[in-house]
Amino acid sequence: MSLPRNSPSESSGQQVSPQKPPSASAAEYSAEERELLLGLAHQAIDAALEQRELALPEIPEHLQQPRGGFTTLHLESDVRGCVGYVFPVAPLFQTIIETARAAAFQDARFLPVSREEAAHLQISISVLSLLFPIEAEEVELGKHGLLVTQGNRRGLLLPQVPAEHGWDLKTFLEQTCRKAGLPPDAWEHGATLEAFTAEIFGEGVL
Fold first, then answer.
1. Can you point out the beta strands (E) in the chain?
2. Sequence-distant (≥ 6) Cβ neighbours of residue 191 within 8 angstroms
3. How many domains would you assign to the chain?
4. Cα(115)–Cα(195) distance, rounded to whole angstroms?
5. In a domain, 117, yes or no
6. Angle subtended at Cα 50 by Cα 46 and Cα 54, rounded to the nearest 5 degrees
7. Is residue 41 domain-resident?
8. What are 103-117's pLDDT values in tens digits?
9. pLDDT at 205
10. Which residues contact 27 (CB under 8 A, 6 or more apart)?
């Protein structure tokens, strides 16, 4: 997964205060709110392809709260793009609009999404909690995403990634370090570990 070129996590320098890990709870977002966000993601891509302004529906107050989030595009069960904001620097609905467009057209791993592909995309959204410090032994696979930082390098992997690849905890830690361009054992040698949880929902791909 990639971060937009002007991603707040890369360029804002915003400091996030340590937070306590969130407790397990029921889903924060209703079925209607999830449907609206997924619809906005599709509409944002379509509007960009058609070079027109995106017409916004009425946005519930809950979706106007600043939250970090990732939008992942799937085509025939394969990832077609994934971009996100780590920090809550924009209202959630705007985060999803911007990251959907970036996943479709700015993920450097892929060619831009075509009109033909757009009609067949399936989208999943990960709404992130605030980051909180964590020790390696406290990381729970399937629950926690990770952000590894050392100097000006950092890498992030979402909570669902270990299960998708069959990784154990050590591999998850190592691969997050590799994502940052660090040695795989950097988590044992001074790199900072932060975790987050995510509410994940999507269209037939989870």
1. 69-75, 78-85, 122-128, 132-133, 145-150, 153-157, 192-196, 198-202
2. 148, 149, 150, 177, 180, 182
3. 2
4. 37
5. yes
6. 60
7. yes
8. 999 999 999 999 999
9. 56
10. 199
